Amino acid sequence: MKRREFLVLSVAALIVARPVRAAGRLRIGVTLHPYYSFVSNIVGDHADVEPLIPAGFNPHAYEPRPEDIRRIGQLDVVVLNGIGHDDFAGRMIAASARPDVTVIEANAEVPLLAALGSMARNGGGGTVVNPHTFLSITGAVQQVYTVARELGRLDPAHAAAYSANARAYARRLRQMRADALGKLSGVGAARLRVATIHGAYDYLLREFGLEVAAVVEPSHGIEPSPAQLARTIDALRGLDVQVVFSELHFPSAYIDTIRRETGIRLYAFSHISYGDFSADVFEREMGHNLDTLVQAILENGA
Amino acid sequence: MVHQIVRPSGVERETLWVGLAAGVILCAAVVTVTLRAAVPEMVALAAHQVDSRSGLTPAEQGLYADLLVAAQDIAAAPAVSSVSDLAAEGLPPFVRDASWRARGAHEWSGWSGEHGEAFYLGQPGDPALAGTLLLRIAGGEGVVWLKPGVVRPPAHPDADALAAAGWKQVVFSFNAGVTR
User: Fold this and answer.
1) Does ipTM surpass 0.90 in this model?
2) Are A273 and A58 in contact (CB under 8 A)?
3) Does A94 touch chain B (CB under 8 A)?
4) N or C: which end of chain B has fewer CB within 10 A?
5) A109 and chain B: CB distance < 8 Å anywhere?
6) ∠ CA A124-A126-A129 to the nearest 5 degrees?
7) Are A135 and A245 in contact (CB under 8 A)?
8) Distance from CA of A244 to the nearest CA of B (A)
9) Is there a domain that residue A128 lies in?
């Protein structure tokens, strides 16, 4: 290739890689399904929301692809979980045409809980945090408020709309929690002893005054070895656990072993990380989680 | 018969040089790792502060998270909201639901301060689950104080008076990048 042609192509590539904003509309990247719902409800029709990873990819095992990295060059801002559930995003942004793209840390104002399960067992000592703040109502509302405020700073013309939308969305989410707790009004204080297959639901259970006694999985999606499973079953018996919460999208034979050996009842939560990205996916699947939790308390803890 | 031992060229010196090279590489690695070790993001707490992640009961952790969110809603309202208004809006932790019982059954009261602040005091019905919590909202920002048991705050509950009376300011640290 001649030097002149190379220069022309290089300049053309730089022009293509520049951020594109359609008539002042923000283009906002998100990593996980709940954040798509949060941001879509905040911005309404005033901005575009784009997932960094395609629907169908498991965010726990996602490895960045060139076509996904390329899309970051078209974004104005990226909203991150930022505390361990979308670590891939940092590498994607660094490798993109916009390594300096504005980042909003959605969890900057959320009081974080220490990680349970594998991360804690590996010596976290309380410094490793549980990144599943999006799997709770209070955690979601706090993040919605933080993201709305930061988007308002980037897009002052729509700041008032973002703030109003965030408060309306927060009211809907709170109503879901109130409806769920209303179904427990006739029962005493919940005193369930709970274990979870994946260490993702501490924030949600904490909202109901419940504490997770044990986490079964050595790592998300990784089945325990027979020796680990035997120790887990002994631990569940020793802790007198009444309920184990598994996950809708991780059916595993070993969960049946736990049920058979311990007689403990199992219920399945949604991790809200699968399927299509949509504005209502968080409300839909969190509604399922709240119904599941209420059912577990009514059947076992009342 | 004459025996002559012929030593290989470079014998022992070669072993010496290899050993020295290995030692230098090892020392360089130790120095590099020591100098470049990442310092954990730990924020030193003042004597009157307690970390929400490690210093609270599970019930207090849930209440603290709810109070921080509630503070933003209260601050955004045109006038200071009463506890009964907040409960009627379904705003946790003021609404009396199953979660309220499971996290200590706090009796909430609210008042306005001399300098335009708003105070909300929660005294537990079950102090074994959670202590007394005081939310102070000033300048649109909420700060939560905690003291075990069922207690009253000082008459003028500013930071100095609360700290002197044994209350702890609840704080949290944001550990972005803990795992990346």
Assistant:
1) no
2) yes
3) no
4) N
5) yes
6) 85
7) no
8) 19
9) yes
